[in-house]
Model the fold of this input.
Amino acid sequence: MEELKVGICGWGNVATGLFSALENNADIIASNSGAQFTVSVIGARRDNPKCDPGNTPIERDIFDVIGHDIDVVVELIGGVEVARELIIKAIKNKKHVVTANKAVIYHHGDEIFKLAKENGVRVLFESAVCAGTPIIKLLKEELAANRVSKISGMLNGTSNFILSNMEEGAEFDSTLELAQKEGYAEPDPTFDIEGMDAAHKIGILSALAFGTPLPPKDFYVEGITKIEKSDFTYAMDMGYTVKHLAVAKVDENLLELRAHPVLIKLDSHLANLKGVRNGMEIDTDLIGKIHIAGSGAGQESTASGLISDLINLANSKAINDQPENNNITSYKVSEFSELVFQYYFYIEAEDKPGVMASITSLMASKQVGIESIVQKEELDENCVPIILITDPFKESDHSELHKELLTIESVKNIRSIRIESN
Ligand SMILES: NC(=O)c1ccc[n+]([C@@H]2O[C@H](COP(=O)([O-])OP(=O)(O)OC[C@H]3O[C@@H](n4cnc5c(N)ncnc54)[C@H](OP(=O)(O)O)[C@@H]3O)[C@@H](O)[C@H]2O)c1
Done:
């Protein structure tokens, strides 16, 4: 039986979850993988009352873990720069690395993978994207014979939880508070609700599927903070719901990378993934569309992904499978402003004769077609909401149109959401 000696760095939520899962599921892990894992050392700058490490030696300086007789360093400290330093030191000391840290892979992936290759070790990161939901291995191994043309999905559990609750009639702020109370959202949820977490994940998936660099060139990222509860009501009347979608897509030699709220058809697979679940749709040439969904966070789910990496290492330590950016030159990254979307517009205007005509004639002057326009029931203060779905037009004209609509005297407020085509 192959034995792998493991050093865990960090002793928080995920690290203690990994330690417990290795202990509690040792029998099933051994029988499924033929491998045995020994945690030889833990790097913990302080004890964690939630987990007793037994007789496992503890290093208070996480960098000292690397000096032990171990095969693999499991980096679970989070953050970017210290984690990078730790991973680089581990690689230079010929230790394999397993990490759940999306931020360090996103910002320094290319540097780390190159160094690992030069040093004959591997860096695995299954749980960095959607924790235990096996998207990395799916792309690298199971779909290896396929040309992937699009990956799209809800990659942030907190955002999906908030939007699913708003779909049921809840307000943004109270749902965010609930997510924090339930432990789905961090005390500082900025990274989740402003879209950066999903952006990191789609950047990593794009590197795997399309060979884009890590870090990628900047791309368009928008969070969910401007979505209102009423957007769900109006969207649903037209057969849509609102989701936060991260997308990596190639068309001919053009590559799109983006993460922002969208309206998607209510009967689509992704529309029906509710709550904290992460879910993705992958378009491939050989097997068509494939869907994968699962828990994208949490101690146990993340431990599952980490252990799958450890098993992979134990069974094939010598395989050289670091992502290589062979395709970098094949794809030109599209400017976001050049992309074309249909848009949902919510326009709040005074209930005066002629307001609809002013809006439609402005749209006509901008050569933006209207698929549908409906005036809804009056709000307070003599204002009416007008819900408009445009024909497809260029993103670069979208913000201009926004500004010009606001110059119509009776228009008081506008918001818009892009519509994701199938
Ligand atoms: N939580 C999840 O559901 C989840 C899911 C997927 C991936 N991840 C990733 O897993 C990693 C760990 O997350 P977590 O939830 O376990 O975080 P956590 O509970 O905050 O634990 C982080 C641990 O690392 C230690 N640490 C942080 N910086 C350090 C430093 N400079 N030197 C020494 N120790 C340091 C912390 O020590 P102190 O306690 O002393 O600060 C703590 O023990 C992150 O990269 C995260 O993105 C988490």
